């Protein structure tokens, strides 16, 4: 089975998010496992399974959303910003890569979307840095779609998206923390969210970097700067294996638990 974690550039209008979700919840096959929306990022993360649901959701977003009207703290290239395919148990990276390439052909041909590839070709941060300057789209038109912008489509292992809010409104402090804890297995950015400074992380090497490691790295830096962690937030889901890597006594503090796993939603 394949997971696809589609990042959509809309997180403020709940009715609009519901209309987008209807593109997959109307199907007789259950494919939507989770929706996580954030008003400050103005972004919703749809955790899907299968190869049909990402197409249906992408098409609905292109119909409903206009990137020129979007504002939010998170970087984005399009209304459907990121479409990563992830091999779950029973599937291989080869399966995920094949699904990615089929989606790319469809999006570029049927929706006329410019597509940037990541995975074997490059990382998602590489695209963020270079798209439309030194890096042209890999497929589709060479100019942004007038309302949908462009889409980044990739293949990757399971990662954990994780936010830690500080008991501080000092964005420069959060940026400094993000820079100091950043490592190859832990990608970090800093934003303002709800009036608080936030360290936003992607744990891309989840087999070696635990959620508690990411949390503790931020907490240690915050303590050294005279503040503390106000709240942690898991974005989307994580696997049971990655959950079990953390002390169960800390699950509540870390905002993780058995009900927040891919496997529990599949069951």
Whole-angstrom Rg:
18 Å
Tally of separate domains: 2
What is the helical fraction, as a range of percent? 25-40%
For the record, the CATH architecture of the largest domain stands as 2-Layer Sandwich
Terminal Cα separation, in Å? 13 Å
Query: Any idea of the CATH topology of the largest domain?
Result: Formiminotransferase-cyclodeaminase, Chain B, domain 1
| CATH class category of the largest domain | Alpha Beta
Total helical segments: 9
The CATH superfamily of the largest domain is Formiminotransferase, N-terminal subdomain
Question: How many β-strand runs?
Answer: 10
Strand content: 25-35%
Mean pLDDT: 97
Strands of the widest sheet, in order across it, are 2-3-1-4-6-5
Order of helices and strands: EHEEHEHEHEEHEEHEHHH
The secondary-structure class comes to alpha+beta
Overall geometry: globular
